């Protein structure tokens, strides 16, 4: 994905890099899909002085969610899509810390990227905190975070924060034209509306084929669903066995649709939308922990949207 925008974050990083005292820990904060990991990799390469032709630098270390099991590990080795564990474990942090007892391989600096830092187990977070409190000379940490509030306050306090804002529609359009050139204009428009400024989410929307899902969600929000027919169609449209990424995209999509045209709605009609949005946020947070039945989750999403429909359309919700 082309990294478009985020000029302020780029400028802040370059100023620090050229300064006399570079902060040792950085928190890259913003919603998922904005290109924070891509930024982290580029920043790390600048930090260690990686040569343009060297793809994998020995002083750039990335900690992320490992494959779920041996079967998924084999898929990764074969270059296929694979499912990951839900958390970054303390063993990964310990292995990284053991590496820090040696000097960098090619220069005076090394970079540790954790993506997403939000997924660290509690014990892993506590272990990382020790390294942030007493960082080895020449070691710099870049923590990619979609939800900084999930990090320990003591970790946040030891990091300098770079904030990544949602992209405007014209920047989103440019990215989708480049990255999804075979996609028609109507689908791109729907993806941009659903993604709320996140290129990654927009591309995920297109890849997941969520166009029909978005149409059904808007119908439920606009018309209600007294006979439960649209909710059944919504469950069928998501499919019998959608993966977690598709379910997350569907929840993101529902929240984005609730946010549409809020400025044009009467104030006394906003409460049902706000309540439905809050419940979708709760479901999204629980998705990583609970094994939801996809059909029941689709019905729940539909019920929340129907409950936020105009009062005259709310029935049997």
TrEMBL record:
Organism of origin is Qipengyuania pelagi
Q: Which is one Pfam family of this protein?
A: DNA_pol3_delta2
What's any GO biological process attached to this entry?
Answer: DNA-templated DNA replication
The protein's name in its UniProt record: DNA polymerase III subunit delta
Provide one Gene Ontology cellular component: DNA polymerase III complex
- Source organism, top-level taxon: Bacteria
Instruction: Write down the SUPFAM superfamilies for this protein, in alphabetical order.
Output: P-loop containing nucleoside triphosphate hydrolases
